[in-house]
Specification:
Elements (H helix, E strand, L loop, with lengths): L4 E6 L2 H16 L4 E6 L3 E4 L16 E3 L6 E4 L3 E7 L5 H18 L6 E4 L2 E5 L2 E11 L2 E9 L22 H5 L5 H17 L6
Parallel strand pairs: 1-2, 3-4
Antiparallel strand pairs: 2-6, 3-5, 6-10, 7-8, 8-9, 9-10
Helix pairs in contact: 2-4
Length: about 200
């Protein structure tokens, strides 16, 4: 995936989804890629999501999409990580991306994050740091991970994240200092390339 990740800044969910699908077309033709961005507030529902897990959306848009998983919130202060790559093992792929996220957080002052398969995500001290949900078509992934960089606590009052009553944590909280989503993206991008792009073909 050498140098094929891109940082889009803050971008509308549907625009970024269109970018992912366009990237998927290129991956089917031979070349992987990844999109990193920050969304305006939006709630997404995976294929099996229960709408009742939306507590109070207010004026936040709700999008039903094809990824796995339950309900989640995306918005300012959160880094969206969308690797669009060919894979055979979903578990190995998720572990590799989660490892890159954990290494990035450690490098930025918050060590100890780790992948957990059930409930799926990146966790730190018993609190959820990053949610995940992907969709695979013809062997290529879209969607991905949502890393809480400096997500406002009030954001989680709108939903039951992933349908669970679990505590959330942000990177800023864990490191005890503010940090920008763009700074985390710059640190994560090359690590994502190493973790997924350097994987054996099809992993």
């Amino acid at each position: 995936m050498a140098e094929t990740w891109q940082w889009l800044g803050r971008a509308e969910f549907r625009r970024v989804l269109a970018d992912q699908l366009a990237t998927r077309e290129r991956v089917w033709a031979g070349g992987p890629g990844a999109v990193l961005c920050e969304h305006p507030p939006v709630i997404t529902l995976g294929r099996s999501a229960t709408p009742a897990n939306i507590v109070d959306a207010g004026d936040i848009p709700v999008e039903r999409i094809e990824r796995g998983g339950e309900v989640t919130y995306h918005g300012p202060g959160q880094l969206m990580i969308y690797p669009v790559v060919r894979l055979r093992s979903v578990v190995a792929f998720l572990e590799r991306v989660a490892g890159a996220i954990a290494d990035t957080c450690a490098a930025l002052g918050a060590p100890g994050a780790a992948w957990r398969r059930d409930p799926a995500g990146v966790w730190l001290d018993g609190r959820k740091l990053a949610a995940c949900g992907i969709h695979v078509a013809r062997g290529v992934s879209v969607h991905g991970f949502a890393l809480n960089v400096d997500t406002p606590v009030r954001a989680w009052r709108a939903i039951r994240p992933c349908g669970l009553d679990v505590a959330q944590v942000s990177l800023a909280q864990a490191r005890g200092a503010p940090i920008g989503v763009d700074e985390v993206a710059r640190e994560l991008g090359p690590r994502l390339v190493d973790a997924v792009g350097a994987a054996p073909p099809g992993v």
